[in-house]
């Protein structure tokens, strides 16, 4: 029987399970899709029990995908970040739905808190994060007010608050209540310098510390499984880490000069640093992961990239993403249209909730193809916005921008990104890099590998997109025009 690590990547739209061997190869995989609900304007939810059932389904599919029997040596977890759920400690029964990272229900509370500039500044200095409804803190505060006797029950320790990794581990082990440093850092409740839950923020938001999990290393055995579908009892849970952080680790982001970009519904550009970097308004300072030491991270979260392409596709009445790509390929490369997809404000590096989405540069000669291409170009320019801020902060030259996510399979998009940035794009051949990153951390925790140098020696296959000097000026000129379009999108109506 072959030994494997079971790496579970719970994302916004699906749960993936991978079987990873000691050579770092994926030998089996399974995927189960998740539903998302939009019960009211600005409210985005998921069913916490559905996540658990789809975990079981993906694990079973992964095990069925290999012809031979395998021994699962450890479980690794990567998860969608910022989404949060509250449940009853005694029964494990959810008291809320999963409040998605996309959910804006606490926008009014954030607006009120931002008026207190001293507190707003304190939150960013403590957590590295700008006050925004994306992060769990304000949503948890509102949820406790809405639960009958919520605050009193929370102070008694009767209520658990957890991001999705915590909910997953609670259900797999049936009682372990922990989170890792990377996920704690995304709650906007964790002091990333002191590495403790921040008492000042908890007090202001009315969140009792008794509701919060113990914070542990990202690579650490925290408990063992109970029987969980096809997953047997007694398997150690050896890693947990936010998906964007896991992707950075999977790309080898513990080495200097590596920056990662995950392209999906939204996008994340991230780099790891061994020391706490300066706090900047434009991008988040966070904890990348903790294994034998703590690595901090610089990150910019972009709200609409893949979703901007899909939104434009629907507006144009195009049936599929493939057809959208074909349509965009028919555009005049020198078209005048620029799309700023501020469909729910702008994220990094602007953090402007008042910005509105616009197409500008429309002319009588504008074709549908030009509009389609402008949607793809908006992804390139938004990533460049964040990449440029991060590159200014890093002490070393950036060797590669390592990429993952569905849109990265578009070769034109990746080559254009390289040409715009003047940096080589490195796309791994394994799409599920978040799961792989979590699996590598688990392997370190159980002794499969002793050092990161051993991880670096594992065979990795990837495709390179070197920048073309002949195209750099063209893309830089278009980027300057895009920047003008962003200024228009930020004008108050």
From TrEMBL:
Q: Which keywords describe this protein according to UniProt?
A: ATP-binding, Kinase, Nucleotide-binding, Transferase
Does the record's keyword annotation contain Disulfide bond?
no
What are the recorded Gene Ontology BP terms? glycerol catabolic process
Gene Ontology MF annotations: ATP binding; glycerol kinase activity
Q: Which SUPFAM superfamilies match?
A: Actin-like ATPase domain
The residue ranges of the Carbohydrate kinase FGGY C-terminal domain are 260-445
A single GO cellular-component term from the record reads: cytosol
A Pfam family this chain is assigned to: FGGY_N
Domain spans labelled Carbohydrate kinase FGGY N-terminal: 4-250
In which family does this protein belong, per the annotation? Belongs to the FGGY kinase family.
Q: What is this protein called?
A: ATP:glycerol 3-phosphotransferase
Q: Which organism is it from?
A: Marinomonas posidonica (strain CECT 7376 / NCIMB 14433 / IVIA-Po-181)
Q: What taxonomic ancestry is recorded?
A: Bacteria, Pseudomonadati, Pseudomonadota, Gammaproteobacteria, Oceanospirillales
């Amino acid at each position: 029987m072959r030994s494997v690590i079971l790496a579970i990547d719970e994302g916004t739209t699906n749960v993936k399970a991978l079987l990873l061997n000691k050579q770092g190869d994926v030998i089996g995989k399974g995927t189960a899709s998740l539903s998302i609900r939009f019960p009211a304007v600005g409210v985005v939810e998921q069913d916490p029990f559905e996540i658990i059932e789809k975990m079981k389904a993906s694990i079973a599919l992964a095990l069925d995908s290999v012809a031979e029997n395998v021994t699962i040596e450890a479980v690794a977890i990567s998860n969608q970040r910022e989404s949060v759920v509250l449940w009853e400690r005694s029964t494990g029964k959810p008291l809320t739905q999963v409040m998605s990272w996309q959910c804006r229900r606490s926008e009014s509370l954030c607006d009120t808190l931002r008026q207190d500039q001293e507190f707003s500044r304190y939150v960013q200095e403590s957590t590295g994060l700008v006050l925004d409804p994306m992060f769990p803190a304000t949503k948890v505060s509102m949820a406790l007010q809405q639960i009958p006797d919520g605050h009193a029950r929370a102070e008694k320790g009767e209520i658990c608050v957890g991001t999705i990794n915590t909910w997953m581990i609670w259900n797999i082990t049936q009682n372990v209540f922990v989170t890792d440093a990377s996920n704690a850092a995304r709650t906007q409740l964790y002091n990333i310098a002191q590495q403790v839950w921040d008492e000042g923020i908890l007090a202001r938001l009315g969140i009792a510390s008794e509701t919060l999990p113990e914070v542990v290393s990202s690579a650490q055995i925290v408990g063992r499984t109970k029987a969980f579908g096809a997953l047997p009892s007694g398997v150690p849970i050896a890693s947990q880490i936010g998906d964007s952080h896991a992707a950075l680790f999977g790309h080898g982001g513990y080495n200097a000069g590596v920056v990662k970009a995950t392209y999906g519904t939204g996008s994340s550009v991230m780099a790891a640093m061994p020391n706490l970097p300066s706090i900047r308004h434009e991008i988040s300072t966070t904890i990348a992961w903790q294994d034998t030491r703590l690595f901090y991270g610089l990150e910019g979260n972009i709200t609409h990239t893949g979703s901007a392409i899909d939104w434009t596709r629907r507006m144009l009445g195009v049936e599929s993403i493939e057809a959208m790509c074909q349509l965009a390929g028919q555009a005049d490369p020198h078209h005048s249209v620029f799309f700023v997809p501020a469909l729910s404000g702008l994220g990094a590096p602007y953090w402007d909730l008042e910005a509105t989405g616009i197409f500008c540069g429309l002319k009588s000669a504008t074709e549908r193809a030009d509009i389609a291409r402008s949607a793809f170009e908006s992804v390139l320019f938004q990533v460049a916005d964040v990449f440029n801020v991060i590159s200014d902060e890093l002490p070393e030259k950036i060797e590669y921008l390592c990429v993952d996510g569905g849109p990265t399979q578009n070769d034109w998009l990746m080559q254009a990104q390289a040409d715009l940035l003047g940096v080589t794009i490195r796309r791994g051949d394994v799409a599920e890099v978040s799961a792989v990153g979590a699996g590598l951390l688990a392997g370190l925790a159980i002794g499969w590998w002793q050092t990161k140098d051993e991880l670096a020696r594992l065979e990795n296959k990837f495709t390179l997109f070197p920048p073309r000097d002949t195209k750099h000026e063209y893309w830089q000129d278009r980027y300057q025009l895009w920047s003008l379009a962003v200024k228009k999108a930020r004008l108050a109506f």
